[in-house]
Write a structure and sequence with these properties.
Layout: E1 8-18, E2 21-27, E3 41-44, E4 47-50, E5 53-54, E6 58-63, H1 65-70, E7 81-86, E8 105-115, E9 118-124, E10 138-141, E11 144-147, E12 150-152, E13 155-160, H2 162-167, E14 178-183, H3 185-195, H4 213-218
Length: 223
């Protein structure tokens, strides 16, 4: 588990193809690696990866075909800057929100414009994820915990303050940038709970779109 508060920006230094998947190496020279050990989880642009090899200034991780298919990682190139966060510990401050590191889909930056000292971004999401995004709710973009300022259909806005622009890769976003998205885990569990016994039926998947007006009315959410 993670908080979505980025600790440092690393760099993708090596990619090795292995029978349909990859091993990657990420370096972060100014990060404290002393408390990282083999088997630990590190969020890399929001993707939870397991440390399989450890060096003085970086680590290697295996990337499955599933991860390549559902995240931006399949398009990563050597030299890419990467948001990094170590896994949450009992002593950590919960500065963001609960982040699992399990990416739900890929979004795209449609607009970037200045707003006072901040930058406002408009991001599009896959249609299947739109229902999980709420005004003033939480969203994770490339591992960064952010607040949704506006939502309309499958579009939402985020407002990024100077500190976040400087300390994460969001400062490099341009129109067309593809980003990893993780919706609030509470929204996903709420959907399953609303389905009740129907959750055991075929087709009642998390992204199956099975929440209907009738179902909400039957459960007392609509009058």
């Amino acid at each position: 588990m993670f908080t979505g508060i980025i600790e440092t920006i690393g760099e993708l230094s090596h990619i090795e193809k292995k029978s349909g998947d990859l091993t990657v190496n990420i370096q972060a020279k100014d990060w404290d690696w002393q408390d990282v050990k083999l088997g630990d989880s590190i969020a890399c642009n929001g993707v939870c990866l397991t440390v399989v090899a450890l060096g003085a200034q970086g680590f290697s991780a295996d990337v499955s075909a599933e991860t390549l298919n559902f995240t931006t990682l399949g398009g990563w190139q050597i030299g890419l800057p990467v948001n990094l966060e170590k896994a949450l510990t009992p002593q950590s401050r919960m500065g963001g929100h609960i982040v699992s590191g399990h990416v739900d889909g890929i979004g795209e930056v449609l607009k970037r414009e200045s707003e006072a000292r901040s930058e406002r971004f408009t991001v599009s999401v896959p249609a299947a994820l739109a229902k999980y995004i709420a005004h003033k709710g939480s969203i994770t973009i490339d591992g960064t915990s952010l607040t949704v300022n506006w939502v309309d259909g499958n579009l939402f806005d985020i407002n990024i303050v100077p500190h976040t622009l400087n300390q994460t890769i969001i400062g490099s976003y341009r129109v067309g940038t593809r980003v990893n998205l993780e919706v609030d885990v509470l929204a996903r569990y709420l959907e399953r709970l609303l389905l009740g016994d129907k959750s055991a039926e075929p087709g009642a998947s998390v992204h199956g779109g099975t929440i209907t007006t009738e179902l909400l009315a039957n459960n007392g959410f609509l009058k």
